[in-house]
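Box S1 | Example of a co-folding query
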Amino acid sequence: MQKEYSFKFQLYPNWESLQTVDISVVNKAFEAMKKAYAPYSKFKVGAALLLEDGQIIQGNNQENIAYPSGLCAERVALFHAGAQFPGIAVDLICIVAKGDLMPISQLLSPCGACRQVMLESENRQNKPIRIILVNQDNRTMCIDSVQNLLPFGFGTFQ
Ligand code: THU
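Box S1 (continued) | Returned holo structure for tetrahydrodeoxyuridine
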């Protein structure tokens, strides 16, 4: 039996054309990005979560001289939300980044470990989390659910 998985996403030339609430979350992600601690990679990542009660939670990458001890921006934000506001659903996560690690035309997209964590947040709350990815060249992708970023994620396939 052959099966197929596909999903639709929106692509915009920049984030200024998003709806007002989304723009405010993007701005918070940029604000968080500037405060990242990334002296080793010099690649600063910012994440902002919009919770269902309207709060915006920020996170950024936190590196360490023992490299694997650091943590990505997305997980810093999600774990902070989980620790401080358990039970309040995440409606949206926006991720932005800046640095020479990759060409500016390269797609900025969360790493596999962050996708797994994002997926568990989505499944726990039983409500999709929208994702906004702003590339370094400003191209902006909007994705409706973490499920689309990690189909067949560990422990979550239905
Ligand atoms: N990083 C993130 O913060 N999020 C990702 O999804 C991928 C990578 C961070 C980790 C490290 O501090 C730097 O970017 C370079 O990999």
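The first strand starts at residue 9 and ends at 12. The beta strands are 9-12, 44-51, 56-60, 90-98, 130-134, 140-143.
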